[in-house]
Amino acid sequence: MKKLGFGAMRLPENGRFSKGIDLDLTCEMIDYFIEKGYNYFDTAYPYHSGKSEETLKKCLVERYSREDFILIDKLPTFFLKKEEDMEKYFNIQQERCGVEYFDYYLIHDIAKRNLNAIRKFNPYEYVKKLKKEGKVKHIGFSFHDDAEFLEEMLNEMPEIEVVMLQINYLDWESSAVQSRKCYEICRKYNKEIMVMEPLKGGTLVNVPDKAKDILKTSKPEMSVPSWALRFVAGLKDVSIVFSGMHSIEDVKENIETMDNFEPLDEKEHKILQDVAGIIKGVNIIPCTYCNYCAENCEDNIPISKFFELYNADLRENHFKFSKYLDEYNEYASIAAYASDCTFCGNCVDSCPQQLDIPEYMGDVADYFE
């Protein structure tokens, strides 16, 4: 099995402000991906406001034999209001994707902020029932919390087969994400490990110039993203690494890395530690641009996009004459400004990175406005 998976959370869209997915380009990306011998695809109910699952139906399921691909979907614990909702969402997902079964079905976003729903509705028993009925082949959960809570959940859900973890070299020793500690807990319990956010939403693609110079000087033939992919793919017991691909160039570059895969050596690990230190020193907002926050924003603020523009400006050192100010104003004029935030807190409750988003919104407003 090849270790690269196609993440369908950041599919290409039609136009700058459009929420519609570019189907022709997505089909081209999927065709190239499968042609090169890769077949794992990951989606979820909220990705692209539900359009991700529908797009995979059109570009993948309706164009390839079912045995040609492995499809992963997730039960949205954060949307559950009553027990019957689990079956409701699963049926919707089956219809959206156009499949009779999912190869993997994960409980989405196991975290303390979703603990009430986990305790009240017991999605663990529900996914076990789906497996028994043959509607899913393997069960697991995606995880966004600390290692201690992960161990607690694995003890409560012993039949879970796979855990999807956020792992990358920037979060490896993070006190919030705890990539290394969570990885070690999964190995302790002999669970299959899938990796999400290996590039941290593009943060490890668009690194500061100083960090980029170090990587390019060390290995000129390697792209900046390939360092991050090699870091996670080289970890023991990692079965698949999902990269959210936005263009055909992303697909080709990631495949080139994995087709010619070499694990990092000790010297290269040390280089990435230095690079991580540089990135952290720039004071960028540690956002992965998943956009869960914006989906729940009462003020209609494009939070992830504003964070992306803010981070890009900081990385490129345009502190006095902002390179991205015009783009910020374009988005704000269509939706809302960062200063329109009313501090309702909905965004905080939905953030997998546990960010104090209203506080960061103040930073963005001060910076751009």
Helix fraction by DSSP (H/I, runs of at least 4): 40-55%
What is CATH's topology name of the largest domain?
A: TIM Barrel
Largest sheet, described in full? 8 strands, parallel, barrel
Give the name of the CATH architecture of the largest domain: Alpha-Beta Barrel
- The number of domains is 2
Spatial shape = globular
User: Uncertain runs with pLDDT below 50, 5 residues or more?
Assistant: none
Give the CATH level 1 class of the largest domain. Answer: Alpha Beta
The ordered string of helix (H) and strand (E) elements is EHEHEHEHHEHEHEHHEHHHHHHH
How many strands in all? 8
Number of helices: 16
The fraction of residues in strands falls at: 5-15%
What does this structure look like?
With 369 residues, the protein is α/β, with parallel strands linked by helices. It folds into 2 domains: 4-281, Alpha-Beta Barrel (TIM Barrel), CATH 3.20.20; 292-368, no CATH class. It contains 16 helices and 8 strands. The protein has helices at residues 23-35, 51-61, 84-97, 115-121, 123-132, 147-156, 179-188, 209-218, 224-233, 248-259, 266-281, 292-295, 303-315, 325-334, 346-349, 357-368, and strands at 4-7, 40-42, 70-76, 102-110, 136-143, 162-166, 192-196, 238-244. Helix 3 (84-97) links the parallel strand 3 (70-76) and strand 4 (102-110).
